[in-house]
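Example is below:
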Amino acid sequence: VVRDDRRAQARTPRATPDAGRRATGPRIGREHRAPVPFLPKDFVVPDVVDAGTFRLRPITTHDAFRDYDAVMSSREHLWARFGEAWGWPAVDLSLEQNIVDLGWHQKEFQLRSSFDYVVASSDGTRQLGCVYVDPADTEGADADVWYWARASELANGLEDRIEAFLSGWLAGAWPLRVVTINGRQVRLPVTSQGLR
């Protein structure tokens, strides 16, 4: 089955436009295959994560309205980061398509094939961005991690805080050694968690 789903494609962008070895989510021109787990079967995937000024939790279809608002109110910022390579977010992205995309991401999380998190305000009332933890398409990496913050939060440094949080969280809560974060390869610090 081939799907044309630009939103979901960009939700898990790749380091290069043609680097798509993995096809566990809707991607333009890429076939769907059964998900291949990239984490140990006994690994407990983090659910709700409190990062102080924001929190992460798995995205679901119930987030469609807040997600759509975050994406479309930040379209220029997101297009500058992901648009040329992934065609996302399209100017004509509809709420209905967003619901479909979030349903797919919710299913990917259930299948343990990819993990899409909402970055929410600490009280959970506002979507501030997203974080994606995907199987690596980048040689030498254990996972490709992507994130963004809504444009209204850029001036207060939210994207910098998300990135600073990610290295420690990925090192302490995930069985990963080397990841890419928004396309940049990062060797994670060794932690006392003993996950590696």
In short: Residues 1-34 have pLDDT under 50 and may be disordered. The longest helix spans residues 95-111. The first strand starts at residue 49 and ends at 50.
